[in-house]
Every structure is written in C-alpha cells, then in structure tokens.
Amino acid sequence: MLNTLDQRPRMGVPGFRKVTAIVKAFQAGKMTRKKNDEMWNSFCLRREKCVERRASRPPDLLILILCFLTASCISAQNTPPRRPFKLVGDTPVFWSLISPAAKIETMATGFGFTEGPVWDKADFVWVSDEVLNKIFRVYPDGHREEMLALGDPDGSTYDHEHRLISTASVLRAIIRLSQDGKSYTILADRYEGKKFNSPNDVVMGPDGALYFTDPTLDLVKDEKQEIPFQGVYRLDATGKVTLLTKDLTQPNGLAFSPDGKHLYIDDSEQKNIRVYDFHADGTVSNGRIFGSEDDGTNDGVPDGIRVDQKGNLFVVGPRGIWVWSPAGIHLGTIEVPEQPANLSWGGVDNSILYITATTSIYKLRTMTRGFVPYD
Fold first, then answer.
1. Beta bridge partners of 173
2. pLDDT, tens digit, 9 for 90 and up, residues 214-242
3. What is the CATH T-level fold of the domain 86-365, as seen in this structure?
4. CB–CB of 316/343 below 8 Å?
C-alpha cells in the first residue's frame, strides 16, 4: 500500500480538530508560546476570512469565537525558560563516558515537537515533528528539508538496507519511506485483524526483524482502541506480526543490548525500564524491572533508548538523558535545555548523541561509541 499523505479523520464541526490540537500541544509542552501564537494567528485569520465569505454558517462563527477566547487564555500562560545544560555524575564511570568539559550544541530549533532522530552517513539527521506533522532531513548548518507530510510521525530507525522505518500514529501503522523520502509503504497496521493503537518507537533486532511498541499515548481522538492492551511486537520480512509481551502499561522506547541477548523496554506510565531475555527465535522471556526513573517530579518520563558498545543505556527521563550501566546502576544524568523525547547515535565513529528535545535538535559528543544495529 503506497501513499504520499495520510488523511486525518474529519470532525463534525469544521476546524474543531485544529483548535483542540493546538490547545493540547501547548498544554502538553509540545509547543512554545511563540509557535502557539503563530499557529493561532494563522488559523484564526483563515477562519475569519471564511466567516466573511460564508456569514450564514453559525459553526464557523462559533469556532472563530472559541479560537480567540482560547488563544487569549493560552497566551497568558508562562512558558518555562530553557534550563541550563548540566552534567550530573553519580559515579566515576559516568565521567569515563561523558567529559566534564563536554558542551551541548543546538543543531536546529523552531520545530513544533521533535522525535524520531536517525543519523545518516551523508551527514544529516532524519527528524519527525509531531506538531507540524512532517518528517524532515536536518543538516549540520541547521537547514531543514521537508520530505514527507504525515500525521503525527514518531520514533524511527533504519533497516538493514538503510531504508527509513517510522511509526505513524494517525495511520496506526509501521511504515517504510521510499529511497527519495517522498512517499511510504505501510508494512503493518494490524494484529490479528485489529488496528494497532498508536505505534510509538521501532528498532531493528539482532535477527533483522523490526520490533516496536504500541501504547495508546497518541491514539487519535474519537478513534476506538481495538486491541485491549498495549503491546510490544515483532514484524518480520514477510509481514508477519507477533506479540512479544503485553505486560507493560504504556510501552515506549526500546533497544537491544550489543550482544543481542537482552531487550530493554521502558514504560512511560510506570516510569521504569524493563529488561527481557531475548532468544534466537525472536521471542522474549523473564521480564523484570531493570531500573526506575521515577524521581518524584513531573520533569519528564522514560522515552527513547539507545545503548553504547559497552552495553550502557542512555534513556530519556526527567530533565534529560539518564545513563545506566548494564547492571542497572544509574551512573548519571545529562540535563538538556529542553525536555527530550528521543536520541540517536551518529558521527563517523558513532560517538555523537543527536537528541530531539521539544522544539530543537541538540548534539553532544561523548567519549563512548554507540551501538548501531543497522551499521
């Protein structure tokens, strides 16, 4: 199934979905006040012109009034300033991975809400924007190239042929982009005949199959949850979908250990990380708690995961990236100016972390080398 743009379901009142999307994005911290104001101004001006042309249609006037009232309330809220970059080492091992003199760089900014980074050897980064509903290529000088319009794109990976695989929340599917990045093919959108919830993140496994999480975090409003749980799945080359586990509340990020013996999955609702034994036949067993990122604050939840060649985990958590040893010891935290959602290894030696954080993309050089399964 090949498409160039998915179609979002329409609401009964014209424009209502756009109104609620802008409100929800700002309240969830996925949009800056500046971006919020820009989107409201643009939307409201379009609605005003529409009302002038079709004054006899009350729903348009109703939406216009709602638009201005809600925009005024939202704009009055204070957007927290960016926090300072900070390295917090809880053990000496942390400083063997991150230099105390390390500096974070802003690669690009001004997005709606960034996700799904994948570094390419041509020296650009694939980035999903969940608010702008687009997938971009972003270059070292900050230049961005729009590749595809797609409803609420999320986590991504390359497959063994370096084709971009992405999760598409509105499509409720796993998709593969074409080589030119301008269209996509749906690889899977159902399990046992029922639609996925809202696929969130995807990685390539030791066996070349794709593994992905399917929480309800981005389930499209007013669409029915058909699968009565939030699962983690395996998708093989033939298109067969196999359920691995359904014992997480809201599974999110996932990653394999370098030796292929363990699968790590975090749970955004439980605020912890689980680890499973991974077997050659693509199944998992012995699920257990690896670590907790519940620090008693509302400064973020577990999200994207990456692993270095030594088996250390770099996991999104409150205020930044939490670094864990293979034994489950919290080594320290990389506090990022904006709350991150995901990360990717890159650079010629895979020592650079590319971090998607709210409206920006950051890069941080480390003293370790990332494990990249598709290299």
1. 168
2. 999 999 999 999 999 999 999 999 999 99
3. Neuraminidase (2.120.10)
4. yes
